[in-house]
From TrEMBL:
The keyword Nucleotidyltransferase does not apply. The lineage of its organism: Bacteria, Pseudomonadati, Bacteroidota, Chitinophagia, Chitinophagales. Keywords: DNA-binding, Transcription, Transcription regulation. This is LacI family transcriptional regulator. It comes from the Bacteria. The keyword Nuclease does not apply. One of its GO terms (molecular function) is DNA-binding transcription factor activity. Residues 6-60 form the HTH lacI-type domain. It comes from Filimonas effusa.
Length: 337
């Protein structure tokens, strides 16, 4: 038999006081004596009283819940971002509702509607690789629900962004390869509908140009994670007339795949081919050889996004601004380049 939930009426009856007195004691009202408040709180704990959060939320018109919509959990980057979000949310007294799209636009739209129906107070979102239409995110803005983009986003709405300095980080990686003597530097590029991919490509191109290294279109190929296609692409880069002597991958996952493919071809890293990644994901420091990369500060990104969102919640919609906060991604030199 289920036990009925304890209410303020039950506490009031046990203490022989009014329910309004119990309510004032539980909500910290100053219009009550310290002895009465102590008696109420002790009885509440003894009776295992739980405040009706749903009723409180209905009265305050807030859920104290933040929606988080991210593309994947396969790399270590977004788990780190969510840790930062949860830490800051807990400090500020907010709950977090996390959903991931598996890099599917259709799933992202569906989950955003779920979060909207759950009446979240705000949304933190990192768009999927397929996302080009942001109408599902604009719905939040139209309802007065603040949105902050993580690691990319859209300029079509008043929504702040927290990003990594992708251009500068890519530039530093390629400059490092050039300084180590590499001249035929290939790039495994990301989806060009994503801001982060375009910035990394531009950093790569500008580093080549500023160091008087020719840009070769044949050395820029889209990253395809399919094992057969990936090996074919790497083999092609290393078997053309003048083969690539270095590879700048869009992220660490692609870089680690490249290391495996190069070893399979019987080549030495970094002597024959150097490899650099992006992100400093789990495993980057234990793969053989250890991967040269840049560190994406995931937890810092999550915390910074929460701070921006809290600032928006304290303001009128007319005061919102689409600011961009850029975080540094530091170069980490290891054995692969």
């Amino acid at each position: 038999m289920m036990k009925n939930q304890v209410t303020i009426y039950d506490i009031a009856r046990h203490l022989n006081i009014s329910k309004s007195t119990v309510s004032r004691a539980l909500t910290g009202s100053p219009n009550i004596s310290s002895d009465t408040r102590r008696n109420v709180l002790e009885m509440a704990e003894k009776m295992d009283y739980q405040r009706n959060i749903l009723s409180i939320n209905l009265i305050e018109k807030k859920t104290h819940t933040i929606g988080v919509l991210i593309p994947e959990f396969t790399s270590s980057f977004y788990p780190q971002v969510t840790v930062g979000i949860q830490q800051e949310a807990a400090r500020l007294g907010y709950n977090v509702m996390i959903s991931f799209s598996n890099n599917s636009y259709e799933t992202e739209v569906h989950h955003s509607q779920m979060l909207l129906s759950s009446q979240v107070d705000g949304l933190l979102v990192a768009p999927s690789k397929e996302t080009q239409n942001f109408e599902h995110i604009k719905k939040f803005i139209r309802r007065g629900i603040p949105v902050v983009f993580l690691n990319g986003g859209s300029d079509e709405m008043i929504a702040p962004k927290v990003i990594v300095n992708d251009y500068d980080a890519a530039f530093s990686l390629v400059a490092h390869l050039i300084k180590s003597g590499k001249r035929r530097i290939a790039h495994l590029s990301g989806p060009q509908n994503m801001v982060t991919s375009r910035k990394r490509l531009n950093g790569y191109l500008d580093a080549l140009k500023q160091h008087d290294v020719p840009v070769c279109d044949e050395l820029i190929i889209p990253y395809d994670s399919n094992a057969i296609k990936f090996f074919r692409n790497i083999s092609g880069l290393l078997n053309i007339g003048t083969p690539a002597d270095a590879i700048f991958a869009i992220d660490d996952q692609a870089a680690i795949q490249a290391i495996a493919a190069i070893k399979r071809l019987g080549l030495s890293i970094p002597k024959d081919v150097a490899v650099v990644g992006f992100g400093n994901f789990y495993g980057a420091d234990i793969v053989e050889p250890a991967l040269t990369t840049v560190n994406q500060p995931g937890e810092d990104m999550g915390r910074a996004a929460m701070v921006l969102l809290m600032g928006m919640l304290k303001k009128n919609v007319s005061e919102w601004r689409a600011v961009t906060k850029s975080l540094m991604a530091d170069l980490i030199i290891r054995d692969s380049a």
